Amino acid sequence: MKNHFAALSLTGLIGLVPHALAASSDELTVKGLITPLACTPSLSNSGLVEFGKIPRRDLNVDKRTRLRDQTLDFSIQCSAPGRFALLMRDDREGSAIVNSQIYYGLNYDGSGNKIGLYSLNFNPENTVVDDLSQVFSTDSTTGGAAWSTSSNRAIPIAARSYLGFTDRAGSNAGPIAIRHLTSRVIVETVIAPTSELDLSTLVQLDGSATLEIVYL
Amino acid sequence: MKKYFAALSTTALICVAPHALAASNTPLKVTGFITPAACDINLSRGGLVDIGKKSVNDLHPTSNTLVDTTKIQLTMACSETMPFMLNPIDHRPNTAAGAGDYFGVGLTPDNEKLGFFDIAITASTADTTPVQAIGSSDGGATWAKQDRIKLGNQSSVAATSDHATRIEVKDLTMDLEIKTYIAGTDTLTIDNEIPIDGLATIEVWYK
Questions:
Q1: CATH number, position A84
Q2: Which pLDDT does position A201 carry in this prediction?
Q3: Of B49, B67, B154, B194, whose CA is between 20 and 30 Å from A122?
Q4: Distance to chain B for A19, nearest Cα, Å
Q5: Which residues, in sequence order, are bridge partners of residue B70?
């Protein structure tokens, strides 16, 4: 996706800011690929996890409270087998009560306190890829340059690390080409101690993120 | 510079390939709100069904035997009118003999499924008005007539005229009938006394 962006930016750059380009004596190389591959991810219930009303008395005062886990069906349908990875962008970045790229924010209460966090967890054991008998996950913190040893343990999706899938256990070769993937993902949600929230007005959980395909 | 590129490229991308952009990602939203409101839920008889001792002689050799029917009333009292659903949890999971939406009563020492119990809803009243019991198998998205509390489904209530539309409730009573069955004795090894050991929780979801 990043490469995709870069390739398209060339025309815009020349057209809109010729002076900036002319003033630079450095060489400018713009590389990338346009791929005919199209993969469509989708989540059941339109990706909506709705907790409804959460009674204050069910929440811990002095420590965090984990709400019940929620599962969503997840699928990716590609126009042809292709190598891709997943990541998830947080539209409420900075509002998670733990600062980590696997935790996503639920926004702020009326006084600007962080309400909580959630994570989205993939389990290779619950994942079916094409006609493979087993699926293993692998991730890359280097934008796809190097990949972790693939395994069948559950892994939370991250904002910057790529998450990919392979048919090989213990492999560092990265994701294989996949056409169809289906899985059940688990959303784990945690609310801040109520002593750290302003409950004098309505506190609304308002998490919003975007799950993205990165074409490799 | 990188940001500059990204900003410019978005425009180009939208012009060139709007469908690709729309299709390669999907949203996830987590919503809800924290409220001072809450409901208290209570089962009559302390929620206990005591079947006593049943002889193997009184059990059917090849099919399930109904060994007990006990009426229990469920009451729910909320601090304000709330949307709700009742979610059952089986603490003896995967021990129910027969259909998957019954509740287990444990295993024999030889790991055979001893039997199961079923929770029927025989009458429901919401805020003094008779209502009908409904159930959802998709977490509350759609509702249909369902006069049982089924494992894997959620239960709620609707007006008697419309089983598809859940109503909000402040005070609820539900008359329940707990029927306990023991599996055909040809599937069981009964050399010693075997406890009937069912345990389930009914929790309120406020949505």
A1: 2.60.40
A2: 87
A3: B154
A4: 15
A5: B178
